[in-house]
Amino acid sequence: MYPHERSLVKQLSEKPFALIGVNSDSDLDGIREIVKEKNITWRSFWNGPDGTSGPISTKWNVSGWPTIYVMDAKGTIRYKNVRGAKMDEAVTTLLAEMGHQVKLVHEDHAENE
Amino acid sequence: MIALSEVPPLLEIYPIFEVNYRKPWSERINLPVFRSLLVEIIFVERKIMKTKQLKLLVGLVLGFASTGWVSVVSATAMPSRQEQPANQDDESEKSPKQQIDEIIATFETKMTEFSKEYRSASEEDRQKIIDEKLPKASDYSGRLMELAKQHPADPAAVDALSWVFSRGRGDEASNEALEILLRDHVENEKLKDIVLMMSFGNPSQKIQDGIKRIINESPHHSVQGIATYGLAQFYSRVNQYQGLLDDPRIADSLAEEDLQYIKDFKLDPSQHEALYQTIVDQYGDVEYRNRTLGKLAGGALFEIKYLSIGKQVPDIEGADLDGEAFKLSDYRGKVVVIDFWGDW
Question: What is the ipTM of this complex?
Answer without folding.
Answer: 0.95
